[in-house]
Design brief:
The complex is a heterodimer of chains A (1024) and B (491). By secondary structure, chain A is mainly beta. Chain A is built from eleven helices and 56 strands. Chain B contains 18 helices and six strands. The longest helix of chain B is centred in the first third of the chain and has 27 residues. Chain B starts with a helix and ends in an 11-residue tail after the last helix. The chains are: A mainly beta (1024), B mainly alpha (491). At the A-B interface, strand 22, strand 27, strand 28, strand 32 and strand 33 of A face helix 1, helix 2, helix 4, helix 5 and helix 18 of B.
Chain lengths: 1024, 491
């Protein structure tokens, strides 16, 4: 009965119980007290609101008091007495009296055992949880100025890895829960207020009340076919039954690039260039006769500027007994560190609940958001097409601009485009408009039986209107005719779920909570793309129609899928000692063939609260809980039409004297009507410990997560003639892991501090693939690098595959006595002759590194002293490799600029055994796909540091402001790493998600990107 | 009152259950899958219109390998095939740019070269599409039985075309002569002879059932016709050294009415497309249908928005006789930081030809048709086949080519071969003529290999006899076949 009530209601109830209890209690004892009176107000740190019903006890006595409805108390005590302040769900505070009034702010106890956490389609008391769930509170979420939810949870929960893929404003980081368990889409399922959503860019994290990450199958199996990658539940804020709170939060910051990479200046580069010419027996470049006289141009910084970020969030929340409201407006505006990149987002949210009848509640959570992203060209695998990176590879002797101020053609790096030109002429504006909302009705049908119906809708509309003018920089970089590109896309998710919840406690010790539900989901997507060229001069505001008809291109797609599900959950609790959870879900999906439309996803979990046992008598350990769980979840992320053998309608050819297009049709992929779900089976064993009155909490989990019947594009022999591989159910991937989190907190008078950390160790292994001996080759980085990563049975996914560089040939003798690689000269790279034959070739390739870390970790330190607070948050990964594909140019291509590492190159016997000589001719040999480009990608980063000051109440009393805090924050201020590229934090490369390549297997390849930023900001939070 | 409440509750309760139940019923239909925008295989190959569409698809792989597919186009004989010969170097911006082509340039071809993988893949794609026609069209009822036969004959021609490209590059290949199901694709390699047999059988059907385009209106242009099939058959026979066959099919071809177009310089111009002396071309145009070729983008100089690939060695330039007009029609000079600075004009753009640089669909959307078989080539094949048995006639055919080359110039320019020529000198003269007449069109390497001259002429550039006559099979395919596909020797 109590479990399914709202938290606010529960809190109110407990107020009364406490007040009643303490009023009776206190009246009996205050009579005896002969001391002076101490008064004060008890408030909550979280929201600054008074806490009614908080208990105050004079330590070592029976003297006590309880706060009234305004949080005020009076207690008989004198200076020097020690008072203890406590309240359910808050951290107990012990303070020595020095003055009266003595105002106390209590912190909410994030590890509180009686806290309620959200699980799928319901919530449970934290102490009753049997699965593996990480909660991240609003407080933790707002400690960093994160522009996306994913970024806000980075490092906060064990087993959740978040990596930023790009510093482009508005880009979405990569989130992986408990490793990568599939070669398919490995993104978790995001659910906002019960609505599964497609796009998290437009979610305003200031609206988030809490984020729960469901990790093991006993928690995620209730989401069945979409739960395999983990589930992130986001709950938005609700008003509470108190006077209105107006909150205004703002920050403004400046951003700079994280730049770990040094390149040569003109003198260094020109010297190396001519050394290469000389080594090859070619004539040196006469212009470089005196390298020291050359002017050095700073291409590296040519497109960079200081970025800015500015955020304003205004919210009003409140309520009465019968209604609550939360209304917010948010605006985020970011000017990127690369010229002409920006992101702007505006959000509105209205969350209301109405108790329309004593037993019926209705409500809605509605959000409208609009975002505008302006990005510059960054496409393909080649480093030299990535605007933010190109400046690093242009030779430093070329002027950036022509004399007339227009972008110039690089003189020696002729293959490289002028990045300034790209930022001017190759921009893409993308506007996204989204609606996200749900309406619900909750009714107490019978005693203990609640019905809830929730309808949710997400609409995401994307829009590109891009007029690109004609321009000419060089023969390589120009646009002979202008072009107008247009994109309209619409995606829509409808979901309707109905649940019945039954709660009963009987014979004192038994309690049952049962859930039965049904859900319908439909997703639709369509888009239209079109372009025209030749818009006449003088058209000031071009439209598509202004272009030449005969230049028009257009395209469009439709996709839709639907899911029909039934599910149930049974929680049984015996005497708070033994807990049982069982869930079951039946999912039917349109994506699968007739024979396998439906699949079942069961889970079971048990927990034992040892500390509740009669025999338990260890005082120091006040919580000891074992959990064990097992369950199955699914993944249905395959193309909607994978079951069909369809015919491509664009296998066209030109016929006739005038060469007109004739339509041709043929199948590109064999279909598979037997397709079924990918199933992930997880076994989880966990331990929860709390020591010394909950001041130390510890959680450990061990899991084995095996994905079987993986939805694989099974590589078939090309003799089949099918250009695309059929999707089949084959292959198994196993992720085994350990996760620990440990928190400690301590109060010493006015000083409060807490430290916490989490670490997760995941061992990933491919058990089998489509057929014996098959492998999946991924990772294209342009130039000579393709098939960088290989996924093969017995290995971790997407391991780097290539030759093993074992040194530098020091002299001709060494070459003569070694397996041959034509063209090799002293100073060139020596590769391991793996098969022991007489040649170095592709059969000497082997696994040369893994992008998966040994472990990932995060730790935070929070301190409060009087009005000051300090938060630091570190995040790191250890033991992963990065394939630094930018090295192709930076470490040996002499006509482009080089990394300063190349200054240590081989120049004669004994000079270097790792960096080869300068050469044009030997370049191809030295730059083979080899371990030379594999680097340790471990890093430790100070993600966030924040120093805040809370204005004293005495000062604020005279104003209309009830609470004010000012802070200074820094993000990514320092990084400890041995990595030589720009930035070791590499997420999924967004440019690789095109053309259907598998981004879940594109791991740890640095192609040069829009770097992450270092931000310093100043913020202000005010409540009225 | 309590009773009323209870009833009220039951109504609500019942109502919700009712809604839920209705939903289940209404939504199970929604789980039916839909394929948007594309027909499903089971519903296709039912009528003559669909037969035509299926046939077009079989043509489309040609434009992929010579136009739209990035590495496939790089692998075309006019690029990859010419590099590393005594005619051309890779060219490009630098010695080493474009690693897959560079491998061919110094004869260090790796089994993971993406070019050979695309060559393998796209040809088999064309073979599948042709097989689908050959398998399904016989079951479709046609009012026009002649057209039905032609469709099948065109498909046979195309299948032969793709197999021939495979045999030339890889030797004997797996023979797949009908569409296979999943699980049946792992077919071992056939011998070179058996592979050629399939090609010849296909071409025989094509020769028998195809009309000559000269007997049809202009709408037939672009399709495979009798002349194309005969020309292809001559080349297939020549590459197997079946000289008698070259002669036989040559005689049939020459009876069709094709002639050499008078001006050599116009052949590779827009007006030269499908001229009377053209036997087969792959069609390309530069419009919004994006069915253009990427070859000109590769071979134009850097300064003319090209990749600068395929630059002529001095050896080829010296091969031309003084004042041979074909020299200027074939090559041009453009100074660049790297390379020999001599580029192939045949697939260049303005200002080097009258083909415009594409303005729609990007630089890879060029309109240049790729000339596959020209009558001059057939004349020289014919001459080579009979030089020993009928030197006079052989000389006559070579002189047809030389006369056309000379054009309006004096007879001393590219003079006729003396009638007295015979034996090895005649053969050498024919070899010379092929080299200059067909330079840059992708035949030199195959000519050197089939005549046994490759080792002598190409080993200075890294060519190794016994290895480089054939390209390696793509290593991924060999691995995937679990040993069924056997790699070519020494790779």
């Amino acid at each position: 009965m109590k479990l399914n009530k709202l938290k606010t209601k529960k809190r109110l109830l407990s107020h009364y119980v406490f007040m009643l209890f303490f009023t009776i209690f206190c009246t009996t004892i205050t009579v005896q007290a002969q001391n002076s009176e101490i008064t004060g107000i008890v408030t909550s740190v979280d929201d600054g609101m008074p806490i009614p019903g908080a208990a105050i006890i004079k330590v070592g006595t029976t003297t006590g008091a309880v706060t009234n409805f305004d949080g005020e108390y009076t207690i008989d005590a004198k200076r020097g007495d020690v008072l203890q302040f406590s309240y359910l769900g808050m951290v107990t505070k012990t303070i020595t009296v020095v003055q009266s009034p003595l105002n106390v702010a209590l912190e909410s106890d994030i590890q509180g055992l009686d806290e309620v956490v959200l699980v799928g389609y319901g919530k449970v008391k934290k102490s009753d949880i049997t699965g593996s769930v990480s909660s991240i509170s609003a407080k933790q979420l707002t400690q960093t100025q994160s522009t996306s939810i994913a970024q806000a949870i980075q490092g906060r929960a064990a087993g959740v890895s978040v990596t930023k893929s790009s510093g482009q404003p508005g880009s979405t980081p990569t989130v992986r829960i408990r490793g990568v368990g599939t070669v398919n889409d490995a993104d978790p399922l995001y659910i906002v207020d019960g609505v599964p959503i497609n796009d998290i860019t437009n979610i305003n994290m200031d609206d988030a009340q809490s984020v729960e990450v469901l990790k093991d199958a006993s928690a995620t199996a209730i989401y069945g076919s979409r739960g395999a990658n983990g589930v992130v539940l986001i709950t938005t804020k609700l008003g509470s039954e108190m006077k209105p709170v107006i909150s205004y939060k703002t920050y403004i910051g400046v951003e700079n690039r994280i730049d770990n990479l040094e390149v040569m200046n003109a003198e260094q580069w020109a010297t190396t260039y001519n050394e290469g010419k000389t080594n090859d027996g070619a004539a040196p470049e006469p212009a470089f006769a005196d390298p020291s006289s050359l002017e050095s141009y700073n291409w590296k910084d040519a497109v960079y500027r200081t970025g800015t970020i500015e955020s304003h969030q205004l919210s009003i929340s409140g309520g009465t007994e019968k209604a609550s409201y939360y209304v917010s407006f948010g605006n985020l505006s970011q000017k990127g560190i690369v010229n002409n990149t920006s992101f702007k987002r505006t959000n509105f949210r209205v969350n209301n609940t109405y108790q329309i009848k004593p037993k019926i509640k209705v409500g809605h959570n509605l959000q409208y958001a609009n975002s505008k992203t302006n990005s510059v060209a960054s496409f393909g695998g080649n480093s030299n097409f990535k605007t933010a990176f190109i400046g690093y590879v242009v030779d430093p002797t070329s002027p950036i601009y022509n004399t007339d101020g227009s972008p110039a053609r690089p003189l020696y790096s002729t293959e490289i485009r002028n990045p300034v030109g790209l930022t001017i002429y190759e921009q893409t504006p993308l506007e996204k408009e989204s609606f996200l909302g749900n309406v619900f009705i909750e009714a107490d049908l019978l005693e203990n039986l609640t019905f809830r119906s929730n309808y949710g809708l997400e609409i995401n509309n994307g829009k590109v209107d891009n007029f690109q003018p004609a321009y000419f920089i060089s023969a390589e970089q120009n646009r002979p005719v202008n072009i107008y590109n247009l994109l309209r896309s619409e995606s829509r998710v409808n979901v309707w779920s109905n649940t019945l919840n039954y709660n009963i406690a009987f014979k004192e010790k038994h309690s049952i909570n049962a859930l039965l539900g049904h859900e319908l989901q439909k997703s639709d997507f369509n888009n239209v793309l079109a372009s025209r060229s030749g818009i006449p001069d003088g058209v000031e505001n071009p439209t598509l129609g202004a272009g030449a008809v005969d230049s028009s291109t257009n395209n469009g797609n439709i996709a839709s899928s639907s899911l029909l599900s039934f599910f149930g959950r049974l929680n049984y609790n015996y005497d708070e000692r033994y807990l049982f959870t069982g869930t079951y879900r039946l999912d039917g999906s349109s994506r699968f063939g007739k024979n396998n439309k439906y699949a079942q996803f069961p889970s079971l979990a048990l927990a034992w609260n040892v500390h509740k046992e009669g025999f338990y008598n260890i005082d120091a350990i006040n919580q000891l809980k074992f959990r064990v769980g097992w369950g199955e979840t699914g993944n249905q992320n395959i193309p909607n039409s994978a079951i069909f053998s369809t015919l491509s309608t664009s296998q066209n050819y030109l016929l006739g004297n005038d060469e007109t297009t004739v339509v041709g049709l043929a199948p590109l992929r064999p279909g598979n009507q037997d397709l079924k779900w990918e199933t992930t089976t997880t076994t989880n064993i966990g331990l929860d410990l709390a020591l010394l009155n909950n001041s130390i909490t510890f959680t450990a989990d061990y899991f084995v997560k095996t994905t079987s019947d993986m939805l694989l594009e099974s590589p078939i022999l090309q003799t089949s003639g099918y250009g695309l591989n059929p999707t089949v159910n084959a292959g198994e991937i196993e992720n085994k892991g350990l996760e620990f989190s440990l928190n400690y907190k301590k109060n010493i008078n006015d000083f409060f501090f807490s430290v916490g950390g989490n670490i997760s160790i995941i061992d990933n292994k491919v058990l089998s693939l489509a057929s014996k001996g098959s492998n999946i080759s991924t990772g294209f980085a342009g130039n000579g690098f393709q098939g960088i990563s290989r996924t093969e049975a017995g290995r971790s996914i997407a391991s780097f595959y290539g030759l093993e560089a074992i040194g530098i040939f020091q002299n001709q003798d060494e070459i003569d006595n070694y397996a041959s690689l034509p063209g090799t000269k002293p100073g060139d790279v020596k590769y391991r002759n793996l098969n022991g034959d007489t040649e170095i070739n592709d059969s000497d390739r082997t696994f040369i590194g893994s992008p998966l870390p040994d472990f990932t970790y995060g730790f935070n330190v929070d301190m409060t002293y009087k009005q000051f607070d300090l938060t630091m948050f570190f995040q790191g990964v250890q033991g992963n490799d990065i394939f630094n594909a930018t090295g192709y140019l930076l470490e040996g291509a002499l006509d482009t600029n080089l990394s300063t590492e190349f200054l240590n190159r081989w120049t004669g016997e004994g000079t270097s055994n790792s960096v080869p000589r300068a050469t044009f001719d030997g370049f191809a040999n030295n730059n083979r796909l080899s371990s030379r480009f594999v680097e340790d990608g471990s890093y430790l980063r100070l993600k966030n540091i924040q120093i805040g000051y809370n204005f004293q109440d005495q000062i604020l009393e005279k104003t209309f402001i009830s609470k004010a805090r000012i802070y200074l924050a820094g993000q990514n201020l320092f990084t400890i790493t041995n990595y030589n590229g720009m930035d070791p934090e590499l997420g999924v490369d967004e440019t690789q998600s095109q053309e259907g390549s598998r981004t879940s297997l594109d791991l740890g390849i640095d192609r040069g990107r829009y770097p992450s930023t270092r931000t310093v900001s100043l913020g202000l939070d005010i409540n009225f | 009152m309590k009773l009323f409440n209870n009833i009220n509750r039951y109504i609500k309760y019942g109502f919700s259950i009712l809604i839920v139940a209705m939903l289940f019923v209404s939504c199970t239909d929604d789980l039916d899958s839909k394929a948007y925008g594309e027909p499903v295989l089971e519903d296709f190959y039912k009528n003559p219109a669909q037969a035509e569409q299926a046939l077009i698809a079989a043509y489309s792989s040609m434009s992929e390998i010579a136009g739209s597919d990035f590495w496939g186009t790089m692998g075309n004989d006019v690029i990859f095939g010419e590099i590393g010969t005594d005619d051309f170097i890779k060219g490009g911006r630098t010695a080493e740019n474009n690693a897959p082509l560079f491998e061919r340039d110094n004869w260090a071809i790796t089994t993971s070269n993406p070019i050979i993988e695309q060559m393998w893949k796209i040809n088999y794609k064309g073979i599948l599409f042709a097989n689908l026609v050959i398998e399904n069209v016989p079951n479709i009822s046609f009012e026009d039985e002649v057209r039905k036969k032609e469709i099948l004959a065109e498909a046979h021609f195309l299948r032969a075309f793709y197999y021939f490209d495979l045999v030339n590059s890889f030797g004997g290949v797996p023979i797949i002569s009908k569409p296979l199901k999943i699980g049946e694709f792992n077919v071992p390699r056939a011998t070179k002879e058996d592979s050629y047999k399939l090609i010849e059988d296909d071409l025989k059907i094509a020769i028998a059932d195809l009309p000559s385009r000269l007997d049809r209106d202009a709408s037939y242009t672009g399709r495979a016709d009798k002349g194309a099939a005969l020309g292809m058959m001559m080349r297939v026979s020549l590459y197997q050294n079946k000289m008698g066959q070259v002669e036989t099919y040559g005689n049939q071809l020459f009876a069709l009415g094709h002639e050499l177009t008078p001006d050599y310089a116009t052949i590779f111009q827009p007006e030269g497309e499908w001229n009377i002396g053209s036997l087969f071309e792959i069609n390309f145009s530069s419009d919004a249908s994006i069915l253009g070729t990427g070859i000109p983008k590769r071979v134009n100089p850097n300064s003319n928005r090209g990749g600068g690939f395929v630059q002529a060695r001095v050896d080829l330039r010296n091969e031309y006789e003084t004042n041979d007009p074909r020299f200027g029609a074939t090559l041009f000079f453009k100074d660049a930081p790297y390379g020999t600075d001599w580029y192939v004009r045949k697939y260049a753009w303005a200002p080097y030809t009258n083909y415009e640089i594409p303005t729609i669909g990007g630089d890879n959307n060029s309109a240049n048709n790729i000339r596959i078989i020209r009558l001059a080539d057939a004349y020289l094949m014919y001459a080579e086949a009979i030089y020993n048995t009928d030197p006079t006639k052989a000389i006559e055919y070579v002189n047809k080519v030389r006369t056309r080359a000379r054009g309006t110039a004096l007879p001393t320019v590219v003079p006729n071969l003396p009638d007295t020529l015979s034996g090895q000198p005649l053969l050498d003269a024919i070899y010379h003529e092929r080299r200059v007449e067909l330079a840059g069109e992708g035949f030199r390497f195959h000519d050197l290999v089939r005549t046994g001259r490759a080792e002598a002429l190409l080993s200075p550039y890294g060519f190794v006899k016994g290895t480089h006559e054939l390209m390696p099979l793509p290593v991924g395919q060999v691995t995937l076949s679990e040993g069924v596909l056997v790699q070519n020797p020494n790779y």
